[in-house]
Design brief:
The protein contains no helices and 29 strands. The strands form eight sheets. Strands 7-6-4-29 form a four-stranded antiparallel β-sheet, with no helix packed on it. The protein has a single domain (34-307), classed as 6 Propeller (Neuraminidase), CATH 2.120.10.80. The protein is mainly β. The chain starts with a strand and ends with a strand.
């Protein structure tokens, strides 16, 4: 017999196996079953919450609205809820349920806005870092209670438009830009203590507005401004990334500012620049190109991605 504390601990007859994911824990749940997108910029709305099934794939459905419409890519996932950290034009932390379709609610406030930043999830806390106004701060908020996000550490430098990935022990971030210049660095910071991030490797080149995904042993970054490649890097050692495939759309306009989502077996890039609606899926088990498996209910960019 086995069951999974979503995004955290898998308990089997042989013991406990740590695996990364969207964060959260405490209640044993089946493996991750849905991908979610919330907020983002579209031609008509900034507040829609979409979800799609990992098992059946296909198009997403509209399951609610955020309480404040924002463009933001800083987000975290607990075992039960998705969290949107700030965004344009807000410092509010919003959350919505993975188990019940409905609208988002206010869970607290950030110490500093992290719109156009990135997020991570440990088993107990959500993290948001960087963003506009361009900064290098790492903020943390506990999943156990609705409260204010606090600044706990620093990135190596100011950063925005980057992507976040999670191992079981560390938060990772890759790509993005700062004032001035672009960044190829891959950085990580520990979940066990409030410490600054460190440089652990580099991407193959500059990548702004890429989407982040995480398997049990690798971090991924897909797409970005004028780029459609997918790169991965290992969690087991500090090393540079390698190219593993391409997103499905040949128009680079659509491959930036998408939302990263992941199941236990696949990564997803949802939406993107120029108001794209496609949902791309690529496997973790092999280095392969992505395929288009459905559409969001709303063509949009700069939204937040979740898994639950």
């Amino acid at each position: 017999m086995s069951f999974t504390i979503s995004g955290g601990v898998q308990i089997t007859g042989g013991g406990i196996v740590i695996s990364p994911g969207g964060g959260g824990g405490g209640t044993p749940t089946p493996s991750l079953t849905y991908g979610f997108n919330a907020g983002g910029e579209s031609a008509s709305s900034y507040n829609v919450i979409d979800k799609f099934s990992f098992a059946s794939l296909g198009n997403a459905t509209d399951v609610g609205d955020l309480s404040i419409g924002v463009t933001s890519r800083s987000s975290s996932s607990s075992s039960t809820s998705g969290y949107v950290f700030g965004g344009t034009p807000s410092v509010v932390i919003q959350k919505f349920s993975f188990t019940t379709d409905g609208n988002g609610t206010t869970a607290g406030n950030l110490s500093l806005n992290s719109g156009a930043g990135a997020g991570n999830s440990s088993s107990t806390d959500g993290y948001g870092h960087g963003g506009d106004p361009v900064n290098n701060k790492i903020q943390k908020m506990p999943f156990a209670s609705d409260s204010t996000g606090t600044i706990v550490a620093n990135l190596m430098s100011t950063r925005r438009h980057h992507a976040g990935q999670n191992s079981s022990t560390h938060g990772y971030l890759a790509g993005g830009n700062q004032d001035p210049g672009n960044l190829t660095r891959i950085e990580k910071f520990p979940f066990a203590s409030d410490d600054n991030s460190t440089n652990v490797g580099n991407l193959l080149g500059n990548r702004n507005w890429g989407a982040g995904q995480s398997s049990s042993d690798h971090g991924y970054i897909s797409g970005g401004t004028s780029i459609r490649t997918i790169e991965k890097f290992t969690f087991s050692s500090d090393d540079d990334s390698s190219s593993v495939g391409n997103l499905s759309n040949s128009s680079n306009n659509y491959n930036s500012a998408s939302a990263g989502v992941y199941s236990a077996t696949d990564g997803y890039a949802c939406g993107g620049g120029a108001y794209y609606s496609g949902i791309d899926q690529f496997p973790f088990s092999s280095d392969s190109n992505a395929t288009d498996v459905g559409d969001l209910t709303l063509a949009r960019q700069q939204q937040s991605g979740f898994q639950g």
